[in-house]
Every structure is written in structure tokens, then in C-alpha cells.
Design a protein that fits this description.
Elements lengths: L1 H26 L6 H19 L8 H14 L4 E4 L14 E4 L3 E5 L3 E3 L2 E3 L3 E5 L4 E8 L6 H17 L4 E6 L7 H13 L3 E5 L7 H5 L7
Parallel strand pairs: 7-8, 8-9
Antiparallel strand pairs: 1-2, 2-3, 3-6, 4-5, 6-7
Helix pairs in contact: 1-3
Length: 219
């Protein structure tokens, strides 16, 4: 009984926290800037250090902020549901959840089949016909400079070759390790590929919904 009670308490605490984050994003969505998202992320991790001494190995929050802000910028009535509720697995946590409206399907860290391989974008968007129309990749920092960026480009090109109408967006949270060479590489790739865009959140006061307009998802 004690374990069950603790399990229920853990769920309540988690849902309260996530609901508060989502409520903040939803109520401020037309005013939130890129830098606001950056500050929200790092403000949480500053607090986290005071509770567990470090923020290392605590993952997923950067993707959560982008996913929830994307959903609210689109503005549809999204319903969450298991992607494959009848799949026979031992652990329900292995079944990802997706968000569906009358127009779109949005998912985070759910694999897509690219030819004979599977790739797992941070976020994808499908239209009502099931076609992938948007891919978002998220980096807190560009940890390894040139090689990291080249790998990112290769992934985006693989998505675009397989889904010719896809729009791709790279979101980078922090300026750390964001060199002039990195910026030049990103600008050059954008200039040669109209389906690609990128955004460094830190210090950028563009509205986050404006950034998502590159994906051409009608509101």
C-alpha cells in the first residue's frame, strides 16, 4: 500500500509540475520570445542544482518547452493518445504518445522509417494525410562544432530526400560553443536549402510563434 501511495503521489507531483509549465506557455504564447524559452529552460536548471547539486543527466525539458509551445502556436485542439495501443510490449512506457488534431499529428522522439532505416527526430509533424511535413531538431549547445553541424545537415538532408515537401528547423538554446564558423556553416546551408531554417534562442527576442512560421503550419 505504501508503494502504491507513493506511486500516486509521484504521478500527482509530475502532472502538477507539467500542467503548470504548459499553462504558463499557453497563457503567454503570443508574447513568448525565443529568449523567454531560453530563460525558462535555464531558470529551471538553476533551481535543479539547489535540489540535487547538479543538473547533469536530467534530460527532456528542452524538447518539452519546444513541443508545448509548438502545439499552442498551432492552436488546434490536440488530443494525446498512444501511438500503437495494441502493441504487445511488457512495459507501457515503451509505447510513445502522440498528439492529434483534425489537421496534424505531432510527436516527440518517435521513429520514422527512412528507406530501410529508422531515424528518430526530436519532433515531427504529419498532415491529415499522414505525410511528414515538418521536422524539428533541438540542441542545447553545439557540443562538437563542425562535425556536429555536418551530422545535423546529413540528417536533415536524409529527411528531405525522403519527404520532399518537409520543412526543417534547427533550434539551438545556448551560445556556448556557437562560433563564427558554426554560424557561417548554418547560414550557408540555409541559403542553399530553402526548406531549412535555424534559430539560436539565447538573446533573440523574436516571438517563438514567428519562428515556427517557417514550418508553414497554418494557425
Amino acid at each position: 500500500m505504501k508503494a502504491q501511495a507513493l506511486g500516486r503521489l509521484g504521478k500527482e507531483i509530475g502532472e502538477t509540475f507539467l500542467a503548470q509549465v504548459d499553462s504558463f506557455i499557453k497563457s503567454n504564447i503570443r508574447d513568448l520570445t525565443c529568449d523567454d524559452i531560453h530563460q525558462t529552460y535555464y531558470g529551471f536548471f538553476d533551481s535543479l542544482k539547489r535540489w540535487r547539486s547538479t543538473s547533469a543527466n536530467f534530460t527532456g525539458y528542452s524538447e518539452l518547452l519546444i513541443l508545448r509551445s509548438l502545439l499552442h502556436c498551432i492552436g488546434d485542439d490536440f488530443k494525446e493518445q498512444p501511438r500503437d495501443p495494441f502493441r504487445n510490449v511488457k512495459d507501457d512506457n515503451q509505447i510513445p504518445w502522440i498528439f492529434r488534431s483534425s489537421r496534424y499529428e505531432v510527436a516527440q522522439n518517435v521513429s520514422l522509417r527512412i528507406n530501410d532505416k529508422r531515424k528518430q527526430p526530436d519532433i515531427y509533424v504529419k498532415n491529415q494525410n499522414g505525410y511528414v511535413i515538418a521536422i524539428i531538431q533541438i540542441k542545447v549547445v553545439l557540443t562538437s562544432g563542425r562535425r556536429t553541424i555536418e551530422n545535423i545537415f546529413d540528417d536533415f538532408k536524409a529527411y528531405h530526400n525522403h519527404f520532399p515537401n518537409v520543412k526543417c528547423l534547427l533550434i539551438i538554446y545556448d551560445k556556448w560553443n556557437y562560433s563564427t564558423r558554426s554560424k557561417d556553416m548554418l547560414i550557408d546551408f540555409k541559403q542553399h536549402n530553402s526548406w531549412f531554417d535555424f534559430r539560436l534562442l539565447e538573446g533573440d527576442y523574436t516571438k517563438i510563434c514567428q519562428v515556427y512560421k517557417h514550418l508553414q503550419l497554418s494557425e
